[in-house]
Every structure is written in C-alpha cells, then in structure tokens.
User: Which sequence fits this backbone?
C-alpha cells in the first residue's frame, strides 16, 4: 500500500500552500472513507492533527503517526468539548447513512447540534463540512434532505461553516464506484427506470481531497456553501454504459416502467459488495438531479477536475496496484468500533473448537498465507459453503461474503475480510477475526502460529458466545461443518505457504 501515492493524488495541481501556523486541526469521521484519506494528507502538509474516534485502537496510531487520537462520540457533548479544546478548524465528516434511512436523520441532527454548540463554547474558528449536492424540492430523498438539514444546523451557530456539496464520489474503495463496477460485472442486462436518466455530476475522490484541503488553506471565515463536482455531467445510465465500455463488457440496456427505488436498491445489494442499508439510501437519491448550481469555488480554487472516465480509470489503476488506502467498509457496520471484543468477555467463550497441524514451513510464509484468506482468493477450500452462508446473510439484510477486502496482500486492524473484521493481529504470530454476519450470538476466529520443537504449529480456534437458546442450537447445527471447513482450511493455508 503506497501512502505516498494517495497523498500525491490529493495535492496534485492544488493551487494553495500549507499554513500549519494557524493551529491544531480536528478531523472527525477519520475512520471513514473520506476522513481516513484526509488525515495523512494534512499531516504531510505539516498540520497538527487531532483525530476524533469513538473508540481508540492500536491501529490508529500506527496508521497516522504524529496525529493525536482522542476518544469522543458526537452524541456526548462533554466528550465533544474535550475533543474540541484548542482546535482552530474542525472537519465535520460524520454521516450516519450506514444506520439505514429511518435512523440516520435523527442521529445526524442531534450530532450536528452538539458539534455546533461544542465549537461555539470551545472558540473554534471555523467548521468545514462535506455534504450532499442537490437543490431543495418536495421529493428530495431522505439522505439529501438530512445532509442539508445538518448544514443548516451547523450554520445556526456563531462559528463560520464552509460546506462543500458533492454528488457521488468515484474512487478506489468508494461505495458508489463499487456499486457501479459490480453491477456492470454481474448483470448482463439492465432494466432502466426513469430516474436512471437523472443528471448527476460525479466527482473523483482526489478532487474531493483537493477541495477539502484547499478551503482550509484559503482561510475563509464566513458561512459559505460551495458546489463541487467533476468534469462530467451525465445520467446514471451513462455511468453504467461508460463503465461497461471501459472494462470491455457488452451490456443490454432496456427501458423499464417499474421504478421502485427500494426494489432496485435491494437488488443492487445482492449483486455488489455494498449492503442494503447503503444501496437503499443511495438509490433513493438517484431521483434527484445533483449538478453544481454555481461555480463560486473556482474563484478561490481554480483547477481542472477529473472527468468521470478519468476518475474510473484512476480507480482501476489503484486497484490493479493493490493500493486502496480507505474503503467504504472501514465504517460498516457503523458500531463496529464499539463491538464486544474477545478479550472483553467476562468468562471464556461458552463454545470453542480447535484444529491444528504441524508444518516445516516458516512462520513468515505461514502468516502471509493466513493473511490472504477471503476476498478474491476465497477461503481456499469448500468455498461454496462460505458463499452459501453469505447468501443467506444477504437475503436477511446482512453483509454477506461479497464485502470482500480492502487489499488482497495486506491487512491491518479493523480491515474487513468478507463477513469478518480483523480485531487484532500479531505479525507472523496470530490473526483474530470477529464475525459481523447475522448470528444468534458473538463469534470469533483466531489463527495462530506457534513454534514447537523444530516445527511450526498452525492452528485455528473458533469461539462462540451464544445469545439465548437459538445460539446453542446454532452452534450444534454447524459444528459438523466446522470440522470439514476448518481442517481443510488450515491444510490449504499450509499448502499455499511460500508458494
């Protein structure tokens, strides 16, 4: 993973210069797709950066050396005030879209009110907020309405707010890009509803970074709403066709009189790695035209943004280089940072199963092999069982196995591997995964490599803490499959080690 390339993309042709003397910068939402990219860019440009997270993890300091990490929740005003002490400019990148369209509006408004009040009390000089592009109209989607309401709430305070309004963001690991890409890859034909012909102005993630850093460095201290967009205005149908052309897939496009966005959103979740709570919100927003209404931003940041085709080609290049620094799955499910850890159980997990073998291969080779499971590589054996389990999970609005992974060759704490998340890892020693599929309880999977009398012992340990009687039934029903799956898995891991 080449972080220098991520930073170079973000500041290429940026017409402003760093002003680190202004003071400390707070970045909220740093564990998400946008914030996770913004932090290293600000650090590279010499700023003092404080990162606000809901729960600290060793991964944060390793990922952003030099940044100050603080623990705070936007719903807790006292925690917010502590995080805002001594801050000059605060980036507000908190969005609760991942909660689903019925829950995010209430959360967003309350969080924005708290943040506004906290910034006022702590004498913050300004707030920079990334929001959604669109104009007010009666049928505006819940998602875009909520984004506009957040901007309005933030602007009710005395602290100046710079709000950047963007349409869909295209970049390696972005939800919008992965939805479009996987729809084109997996669907031979498309039924096009009327709202798929709505105009949009997609923007490359690299250009979003330029605008975020740029407005920080122009020192604007009045409320401003800036529309930011890419170099192409096109329909969603056009985006699908352009994607198909780029990857060389012939696809059939037919008009459809059936226009229910919920149906299309659910269908998209089955064909793409992105789960239903996100696709449903994004599909609902497709009925609203989202193009820049003014070009005021060019008066202070005049550079040529990428076209849609250029943004897609850039994303594909980064994928081929296995250089995806952040991904939409970093923040999904939204409460994963607060999830119960294996080490936090009061007693050992109720059910455990252990499988192991001895190998003459090195701990380095074995660990590299362990860290390649899931994603495009699959689970090395009995993949149909994993896919079947993922399919059932998706049918019931779970995350399924198609979520994949950020990188095919590297892992860090909090990365996802299909329907698991990396809870902890020790180089050449162990990998601990926490289950995030729908379960009647809590589950973990731990791979260990231990030295034993000239051999290395490779083992996998399954832990399950049932949640009621259904959990007990679940464990015993799946136990026979565990014997097959896990014994085959460690055999394949050992076989592929060093290959």
Assistant:
């Amino acid at each position: 993973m080449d972080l220098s390339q991520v930073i170079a993309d973000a500041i290429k042709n940026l017409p402003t210069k760093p002003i680190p003397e202004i003071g400390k910068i707070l970045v909220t939402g740093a564990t998400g797709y946008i914030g996770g990219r913004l932090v290293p860019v600000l650090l590279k440009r010499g700023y003092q950066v404080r990162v606000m997270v809901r729960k600290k993890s060793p991964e944060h300091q390793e990922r952003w050396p030099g940044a100050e990490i603080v623990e705070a929740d936007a719903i807790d005003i006292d925690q917010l005030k502590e995080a805002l002490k001594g801050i000059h400019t605060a980036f507000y990148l908190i969005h609760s879209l991942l909660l689903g369209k019925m829950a995010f509006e209430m959360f967003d408004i309350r969080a924005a009110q708290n943040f506004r009040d906290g910034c006022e009390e702590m004498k913050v000089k300004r707030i920079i907020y990334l929001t959604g592009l669109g104009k007010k109209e009666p049928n505006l989607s819940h998602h875009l309405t909520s984004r506009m309401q957040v901007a309005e709430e933030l602007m009710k305070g005395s602290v100046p707010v710079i709000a950047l309004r963007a349409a869909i963001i295209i970049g390696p690991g972005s939800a919008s890009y992965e939805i479009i890409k996987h729809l084109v890859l997996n669907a031979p034909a498309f039924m096009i509803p009327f709202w798929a012909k709505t105009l949009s102005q997609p923007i490359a993630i690299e250009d979003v970074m330029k605008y975020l850093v740029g407005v920080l460095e122009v020192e604007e201290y009045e409320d401003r709403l800036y529309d930011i967009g890419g170099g192409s205005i096109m329909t969603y149908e056009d985006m699908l066709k352009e994607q198909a052309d780029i990857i060389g897939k012939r696809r059939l496009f037919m008009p459809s009189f059936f226009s229910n966005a919920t149906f299309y959103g659910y269908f998209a979740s089955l064909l793409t790695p992105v789960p239903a709570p996100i696709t449903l919100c994004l599909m609902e927003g497709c009925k609203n035209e989202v193009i820049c209404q003014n070009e005021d931003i060019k008066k202070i940041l005049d550079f040529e943004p990428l076209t849609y085709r250029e943004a897609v080609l850039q994303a594909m290049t980064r994928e081929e280089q296995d250089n995806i620094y952040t991904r939409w799955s970093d923040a999904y499910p939204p409460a994963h940072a607060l999830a119960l850890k294996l080490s936090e159980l009061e007693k050992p997990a109720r059910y455990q199963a252990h499988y192991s073998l001895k190998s003459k291969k090195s701990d380095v080779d074995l660990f590299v092999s362990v860290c390649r499971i899931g994603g495009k590589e699959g689970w090395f054996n009995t993949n149909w069982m994993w896919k079947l389990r993922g399919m059932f999970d998706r049918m019931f609005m779970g995350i399924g196995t198609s979520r994949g992974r950020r990188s095919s060759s590297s892992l860090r704490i909090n990365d996802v591997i299909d329907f698991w998340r990396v809870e902890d890892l020790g180089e050449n020693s162990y990998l601990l995964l926490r289950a995030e599929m729908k379960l009647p309880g809590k589950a973990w999977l731990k791979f260990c490599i231990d030295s034993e009398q000239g051999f290395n012992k490779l083992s996998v340990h399954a832990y399950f803490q049932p949640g009621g009687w259904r959990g007990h039934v679940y464990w015993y029903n799946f136990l026979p499959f565990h014997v097959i799956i896990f014994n085959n898995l460690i055999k394949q891991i050992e076989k592929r080690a060093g290959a």
Remarks:
- The chain has a mean pLDDT of 90.
- The two ends are 21 Å apart (CA to CA).
- The chain has 15 helices and 19 strands.
